[in-house]
Amino acid sequence: MAQDIIHDPDAGIERLLEIMRRLRDPETGCPWDIEQDFDTIAPYTIEEAYEVADAIDRRDWRELEGELGDLLLQTVYHTEMGSEAGHFSFQSVVRNISDKMVARHPHVFGDESREKSAEQQTADWEAIKAQERAEKAQRGALDGVAVGLPALLRAYKLQKRAARVGFDWPDTGEVIAKIAEEASELVEARDSLGHDEMVEEFGDLLFVMANLGRHLGIEPEAALRGANAKFTRRFAGVEARLAAAGKRPEDSTLEEMDALWDAVKADERTSAA
Q1: Per-residue confidence at 243, pLDDT binned at 50, 70, 90?
Q2: Entry's CDD domains (predicted)?
């Protein structure tokens, strides 16, 4: 029966669960898969989540299908290890998230009215989450913001949590003034203090930049990801133009590359017009 499921393309999630059980079988499974634990698999889980985001950014729906499968495999991997250790199972994880979604949407699955604004629904959602944190003995406003998040995204979430309890600048003008202050302190650290102080001031500047993004409705991790993609695309254009002239970046001057960079930018603007 199990063998039939493994080779049945229409067996759905049960097929994937059985494949993972077989891979982890201590006697007949894959040696590499058997050796893995939560700590060794976690980096792959993070990587797969970013590859999902990358496929979405590029609007590559065929690749997104594959990346979502890779991410689903990570969940199956963790739940199989959890089941082996007696912590939880795939079914308990599914039950937990299903219960959570039903509880957090009383306006869809309960008696509450759907006749409310998106802002009110967001406020209700946060109130339900706050109650859940209290039940988990997470008393502080910042409790539960995962330490393992990318630092820029965690800064954004920490500031968002603090803002919910009133710890926030009232407008973007004050945030921009704080950016100028932090930039000045970074210059001072560079010129007259040590490396550790410079690192601290640089971190402070990044933290306030994330806050400005929140005030402007910009998710800083996504914005920086877009800037990275733009830089990669434009630098590839510079390399292509150099290659057409029989040159490489390391054989060129900064002035040459700057001129080509401007040309690539100009071509992008013309194409977008």
Answers
A1: very high
A2: NTP-PPase_MazG_Cterm, NTP-PPase_MazG_Nterm
Residues 63, 55 contacting (CB under 8 angstroms) = yes
- Residue that terminates a domain, selected from 103, 131, 152: 103
Q: Which domain holds residue 122?
A: 108-139
Distance in angstroms (rounded) separating the CA atoms of residues 156 and 144: 14
Instruction: Label residue 220 exposed, middle or buried (CB < 10 Å: 0-12, 13-18, 19+).
Output: buried
Nearest to 5 by CA among 68, 70, 77, 17: 17
- Looking at the structure, tell me whether residues 37 and 10 fall in a common domain: yes
Q: How many domains does the chain have?
A: 4
Go through 184-205 and write b for each residue having 16 or more CB atoms within 10 A of its CB, e for each that does not: ebbeebeeeeeeeebeebbebb
Confidence of residue 231 (pLDDT cuts 50, 70, 90): very high
